[in-house]
Amino acid sequence: MPMPATSSDMFISSANSTPALPHGTPKIFSSNRQSVSLTDIPRLSCSADDDSSSDPEPPKIQELPKHSPFGALLSRTLPKYTGPFPVGVRDLEIPIPRQTFGSFKHKNMPHSVAGIAVDTVLFTIFYPCETQDKPKHVAWFPRMGQTIDGLLKMAKRTPNVWNRMIAYPAAAAIVHGTTFPASKCAPLAMPPSTPVPSSFHQDGKWPLMIFSHGAGCSRLMYSAFCGEMASRGFVVVALEHRDGTSPSSTIAAADGSKSIVDWIQWSDLHWPELAEQPMDDSILRREQIKCRVAEIEAVIDIMKRISEGEEPPCRLQLNENLDWAAWRCVDTTTPVLTGHSLGGSAALAVSANLKCDYRGVVAFDPALQRLMPWDSTLPHPVLVINSEEVMVRHDFRQLFVPFAHSATAGVQVYVIGGSTHPSFSDVFLILPHTINKLTGLGCPARAVIDRVVRATGEFLADDAGGAGAQVAYDEVFRDADDMQWKMSIKGRRRLFRRHSKEDGMYRALGKPGELALYHF
């Protein structure tokens, strides 16, 4: 597609070296727009067409743990975390000043409150905990009936007795009793006084990370990533957004009563102030991102107050006396923003809002179209890891250009070969590999989580406590119509049909499960 001449080598990095380059050497650009050679970036292995392919292949940084071909169907537990610390988890719901977003009305409820109203924030904290003799693991799919009804509404199916007769047994067979390997309400561990390999604690503090889920998901559906980062020394706060993008969420009121926020379908809304009603969900999504930004900033403020020794007015019933003083060891000065899909877009929007000095932004398959038109600045280092499904879309490069130009602290873009949009969540860790392949996943589900955890760790591994360090990659993918990148795979043909060429072939962005630097 036609692009500005300056974007022909559009990869922006935080690297600062500036060696002399021979003519024709591909370049990337740093935050101060100085060019560096791709050969200066650490690589895991060499691509087939590299001149150095005859050199011995370096060893992989980490061997992938074995994962059952039956997913979690037999074990009913997600894979163990691989970091040096055991992981604890607890839920908090904290009241915040009431805010509303959007002026729409539900067509079937014209007398209801307009727009999205938020007066509490619900989140799950994943954190390094003290070792437990008999850890009590956490249910991955709580409120099954309520959530299934929400998923039916998302699929535009009325949650009546007939649909429930099909959905309930199917969901129960797949996820009922499934847990993830974190200890419920375990005490927060004190940071070690000495360095620990693969740990990110510094100066006696655990760093803070915020995670924003994608549309159609909830706070626990990314437990693999959040738990892995917690096992490496992060306190990870996973929000459950009350913006109508979750299948269903329960709100606890001050008087003990509860209400439910369901999925909001854009076609069910009426916007009184608009002369013409929206033809898609774009306007609704913009309001939902505004809501997410407010929720994320409120949670960061709550965590700051907790780290200062303040006990928050929690709406959820705590079964034990929580030692809030122990949470003074959480460093909330430079949080890391992370998110998937719409959550990745929210993380970018929060960075641009300049309310805090964030350490960096890590976005998985960010829904960039939800932020257009983009005229803001990204002042913090940005890491984007995309699935192959998203990268083969024809509009990604066009959408990404304004974000790349606005990233003053640098941005890195990578793609995981064979991955699909949902593969950043826990879903494919639960389903058998055979079913995953039928949906289009062309690599092991565990490989995707391993790659994003490793890349996130490398990106944040700055000796000065910052971010933007170069991520080690397996190969380079250039945005060119090179026939040797073409391949036809049955699963991908089904999923990527709208991206197909006339010859019916599909572009493979690197080898399945490997991390490729996206250079264009």
Automatic annotation (TrEMBL):
Residues 1-19, 28-38 have a biased composition (Polar residues). One of its GO terms (molecular function) is 1-alkyl-2-acetylglycerophosphocholine esterase activity. Its EC number is 3.1.1.47. Transmembrane segments: none annotated. Residues 1-66 are annotated as: Disordered. Residues 57-66 have a biased composition (Basic and acidic residues). InterPro entries: AB_hydrolase_fold (IPR029058). Keywords: Hydrolase, Lipid degradation, Lipid metabolism. GO terms for biological process: lipid catabolic process. It is an enzyme of class 3 (hydrolase). This is 1-alkyl-2-acetylglycerophosphocholine esterase. It comes from Phanerochaete sordida.
